Amino acid sequence: MIPGRGRDLHFVKKAHPAHNAVEILLKGLEIALPKGVSFFDKDGHERTNTRIRWWDDAAMTYKTAALVDPETTALLPDIELGPDDILAYYHAAPVLFGHYWIQGEPIVTDRRRLSLDYSVAKGGHLTAYQWDGETELDPSKLVYVS
Fold first, then answer.
1. Smallest Cα–Cα separation from 49: which of 61, 59, 35, 69?
2. pTM to 2 decimals?
């Protein structure tokens, strides 16, 4: 296991091929916004890239794919992502992931991809999945507490 977060990994330089893999693994997939489009994050930093809902097959535009607050979503263009922005993910087994601060009640929205991060640190739900080796996720195996 790699200690710390992506920015703490001094041994993986940005030019190294492992850097991008570590960034995606720890922070999620990011794509560039269209030329001339940017937004300011919660700390006031201008962003020309955005993390996306890579697990959501319906997220096909910048507006629907971006993982940003509703005010920022409203500012993004509703144009389709380019072919280089959409990655084809094949998963032989379900992929359980976190670090996305999903809001609301935990639900299984996809038969092979599931976020377990429901903002427990901000009053959300501590979420788990009772996986028994099945190739498709079973909503009855999703468990959570507030």
1. 35
2. 0.64
